[in-house]
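Before drawing any conclusions, I needed to go through one protein's amino acid sequence and its backbone structure tokens, quoted below without any editing.
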Amino acid sequence: MLVASEIYERVTSVLAEALVVEQDAITPTAALKRDLGADSLDLLEVMFRLEHEFGIEIPRGELFPDSTLRRGPDLVQDGKLTDKGVAELRSRLPFADLSSLQDDRRLSAITDLFTVGLVAAYVAWKLDSRDSEGLAAERRI
């Protein structure tokens, strides 16, 4: 089982290669789009490389749920997330710390949630889920 520091190191390596940025530009709080210049094609490349690097499957929309909040006025009003919108985002990103949304609910702030640290947390969450499922399967045998 990988420890958090190993996961983070491998995630930063993947991001440096996929986004063609210097390793020192990659910090836990660096936002993928704002700070590292990622676009939607880059995010697909990141997902592909993470799958390969860690042997995980990343279902579409699980790591980067870009269309989550385009569904209706009950989720977004006046360009800001409603309580229901925050709850929806929490359900889609159980691995993420969304505490910053308490102070800033602007839709534009959502992209800043997708940081290097969040990607590392996602991978750790994904690996932990996979390991937990494997243990449960072993117990059934």
User: Anything to note?
Assistant: DSSP finds five helices and two strands in the chain.
